[in-house]
Amino acid sequence: MAEDNEINATDIQSVKFDELVNFFTSKKIELKCKECGVVDPAITSARKENEDILYAAVSQSLIANESSEANTLFYFNVSCQNCGYVRLFNAKGITEQIHKSKNTEGGE
Ligand SMILES: [Zn+2]
Asked: What is the pTM of this model?
């Protein structure tokens, strides 16, 4: 039960596009494609209806018979719209850090 502050799928889904771009910028992660050099990334792969919200791109069950959220890896998927090169970032870890920085900055 007491999984207190575990980041869950809902938290991950609530991360906004700008927050994620800000996170990448703060970590000095170039959004320019490592393969073809074009700066036209799509950070995807699902959006909530009518909202500019990013969503965990890929989820995988780590344990064959259990597909619970706890056994799922969530990724933010940054893909190049020019050549299709895909990078995956651990969504749980990023969401956790975004939450932390929100809490210390006290919101906008
Ligand atoms: Zn590319």
From this structure: 0.68
